[in-house]
Amino acid sequence: MTVHVVLREEELAVGEARLVAVGERELVVYRLQDGFYALNNYCPHQGAPMLAGRVGGTNAPSDVYCYRYDRDGEIVRCPWHGWEFDIKSGRSLFSERVRVRSYPVVVEDGKVGIRI
Amino acid sequence: MAANAAYPIIDADIHNEQEDRALLPYLPEPWRSRVAGSGIGYAMSGYWSPVGVMRKDALPPNGARAGSVPELIVEQLIEPFQVEAAVLTGVVYNISTTHDPDYAAAICSAYNDYVAHEWLGKHPSFKAAIAVSTLDPELAAREIDRLAGHPGFVEVIISSAARFPLGQRYYHPIYAACERAGLPLAVHPGAEGGGLSTAPTAAGYPSRYLEWHTNLSQMFMAHLVSFVCEGVFVKFPGLKLVLVEGGVAWLAPLLWRLDKNYKALRSTVPWLTRLPSEYVRDHCYLTTQPIEEPDNPQHLADLFNMMDAENMLLYSSDYPHWDFDAPDKILRKLKPEARRKVFYDNARQLYRLG
Ligand code: FES
């Protein structure tokens, strides 16, 4: 496991995302309220570029005809077929088994690195 | 795409778009002032989706509509997937759910001229569908006659959102014109439930886009049964029908049911001298997108074995819409020969390309 530094902390504001390359891999680094996260720039469904997906919240599971908007800024929706993924874990919101590959991010001395 | 290096692809459904005002130079008065003042004014279904209709990465940087910049279509679809021919289907067939037959016919004519002048020459892969409105089948037939023989137009397209089942005799002038012109007829969904069309499902109006979109297949089942039972393929033996974007997995069980009923009720449709499924096999094609995706892909392959799928399917991407299917990601269970037919040979023969 090596940490690859991809950007400096101040280069990305909360709510922003950036495409970075680590070797052959294209990753998207997201800065949420509580820190940095990295996902593969490749949707597990048909391979859409995750960077083009909108980030927002979602309606959490609720009673019938109730809506509970939650997790604002933590969910990315694939730009093609609209599958929703949790940016923090890469997991899709409809199945434990479906996920975008996610990578641990380490921030040290203002440098954002990805552990691969 | 690596898996396909041996042959290119034909894409039977690409939605080119334009700003409403792009049609103004092709529109005569009194329609030109109407569109200049208030836009075309489609009567769409009204159902809302959080995903939106467009692929987010297909929105041109200049703020134009997705699908309106030919160069971007070439860059995102035609070149990366080696698309040899792309049928530009537009979105103007949706005009059939508005109310004025003369206006709808004028919009279609203007659009067809616009495509002929401003799209067909833009890339060698571009072919187009002639859009006609079902609000006046005689006017639609005249439009088909007007453009018949133009080498860039490879089919006629109408909306599946209609006032009544598409096989009925009211529509027959359109089918006669398609047969005269030697052009297949494509039927495309989108405006179901809008304007003067029927409710979008057999049960009425559902509450959400999720239900609306899922049930589009119902519309296609009803239209297909109508086409067969009304004797359209008997009256117009040269007619080919392309069911675009209506799903495919429902076909085999529907035809089992129809054939079974025919055995008892044949005398009500005495013009059908063969099993209904045989007319469908001889006259109909279905485009693949949005392909059904069971958890176990073998289940779809099994369904395909229950119908003549490899000879009836045409690959379609639906670019730039949200439910786009990438050619290298779908139908991977098909055998190589079947894949080649679906992605290339069937469309090449149907549209007489190359
Ligand atoms: S490619 Fe991401 S949801 Fe289909």
TrEMBL record, chain A:
Cited Pfam families: Rieske
Keywords linked to the UniProt accession: 2Fe-2S, Iron, Iron-sulfur, Metal-binding
InterPro entries: Rieske_2Fe-2S (IPR017941), Rieske_2Fe-2S_sf (IPR036922)
Source superkingdom: Bacteria
Domain Rieske positions: 4-114
Keyword check for Iron: yes
Transport as UniProt keyword: no
Gene Ontology molecular function terms on file: 2 iron, 2 sulfur cluster binding; metal ion binding; monooxygenase activity; oxidoreductase activity, acting on paired donors, with incorporation or reduction of molecular oxygen
Full protein name: Rieske [2Fe-2S] domain protein
Organism: Paenibacillus pasadenensis
TrEMBL record, chain B:
Pfam family, one: Amidohydro_2
GO biological process: secondary metabolic process
Membrane-crossing segments per the record: none
Domain of life: Bacteria
Natural source organism: Paenibacillus pasadenensis
Keywords assigned by UniProt, alphabetized: Lyase
SUPFAM superfamilies: Metallo-dependent hydrolases (SSF51556)
Annotated InterPro entries: ACMSD, Amidohydro-rel, Metal_Hydrolase
GO molecular function: carboxy-lyase activity; hydrolase activity
Residues annotated as domain Amidohydrolase-related: 59-353
One GO CC annotation: cytoplasm
Protein name: Amidohydrolase-related domain-containing protein
